[in-house]
Amino acid sequence: MAKTNDRWIWSRGKMLDGHRFDDDSNKIYTMPAELYHQAFDNGNPASISEVVVKFLAHHYQYEAPRIAELERYYLGDNDIHYWRNNKKFLNRADNRVASGFPKFITNMRVGYMMGKPIKMQWSDDSATKPPVVDAVEEFNRLNDETYHEKVMKTNLSVTGRAYELLYTDQPTENEDGSLNTAQVKLKAIDPLTAFVVYDTSIEQRPLFGVRYYLVDYDDAGTQGYYVDVYDADTIYHYYAGENPTNADMQLLGEDNTGFGVEPMTEFINNEDRTGDWETKLDEIDAYDKAMSEMANSEEDFANAKFVINGDIDADMEAVVGHDGKPILDDDGNPIMLPKIDAKDPYLFLKPSIIPDANGNTIVPSSAEYLTKQINEAGWKLYVERLAADIHKDTNTPDTSDQNFGGNNSGVAMAYKLFGQDQEMSMQKSLFSRGIMRRLRMLTSYWYANGEPGIKEDDANNFVITYTPNLPNNDTEIVQDLVQLANTGLFSDQTLRAFGAVVTGVSADAEEQRIKEEQKTAEGQGQFDGGPLQGVNPVDLAAAKQKAQQNLQQAGEKPMSPTDFILNAQRGGKNAK
To answer: Model-level pTM?
Structure first.
């Protein structure tokens, strides 16, 4: 996720005394389609900017602070860092310990869902793959699609939404002067600085997308906000100055999107558009505060006041003021105190004898630190309970749990991950919607540009498949594979697909390898077939040439393998 230069957004957090976020901080932006067309169809930059600024001002004021706070937590900048108290004025320890729960939960979710690449498989069972399959695979390779999906899932887990932008590169020119189709590129956009506006229909069709960003060029103060507006056909580039809500934005230029639809796609984490741990921010704050107070108590104990009762058996010295002169008592005598060096390993104490009217009062000597008692057992139970609730309510397994180990059976592990799997099933469906929109935009673009063999509706034949990234017990998998094979109820293709978890080789690739090995074995079964294993090809060619010369000199022809074996049998000899 990209960082913002607006420190006022990032530093708003504090330990709460009211609502954490504004009621409008997670709003879906919509507008009537007819009003959109009135503003955008004529291409008037003034009317377009007038509409855009209304949504931009709301996003900057209400939605950006929420997203920035969630991103802060993911980066370890929790609200405990902004806790307001008077500890420093009381000369007490004031540690601010931020926990790593947000990053841990997000990384677990991203690794579990995206640790193994998403498969975009062609659903048609035809023997040959259509050109669109190769085009999609090449697109994914050039854009590092595997990493891109992890970035998108991270944004979803943290902020509840993610934005993806498709754009085209400059077309390349051939030697004859013709132009190749411009290459499509893929980019994840920071949710802090992007949003999409939809129409008010039941389908909520996207009308236009907005991306705004701050350019801080140098130390001389050259900075300003730039705003890019994406509709179905055109990209409008504006300059807004120092305030992104500036109603008088300046149009810098226009570009063609090339897709015929708004190219910015919004992914959502769930129907509420909330992050994976957003609902547990209160518990995370409580955990941070408990850990910080324990650190404060330990530090206060190390700096505790040392209390001495009785008299110190040491030399006396006069107390001097800031001017270096002794301080006198009411009788004009210097005030004397025991001469104590803090580096001394011990002190000599003796009881104090205080004369009074009834004789003498003896005060026993003692020395101790003035500290408060800490209920460590209760504190430990409290933080453990908070941590357990965070794990439970976010459906995130606690890998530090002694019952969460590699010696558990597959069924036991499945129950531990049951809650996460249920939540992930919805997230996979929502994520697949975004991928399918991406594929439809790609196939439509390629079809419109006349790419050979690609049909406009090819995207509908793709199936999106996710493989959970879990530690595997290869021994159990192989045993299950053998049992399935022994039943005779499953095809070789199914068994290869099952074994791909262990080998890392897909069923199709495994089948191709087997065919190649069989073909090689058949060739090596003949004397004139492929090269013999362990034999230098140069030496083998020389030997064949020598044998051919000997046979020609003897007036014989080369003997086939079958004739050789029959001849040996007739002669009563064993072929070797």
So the answer is: 0.74
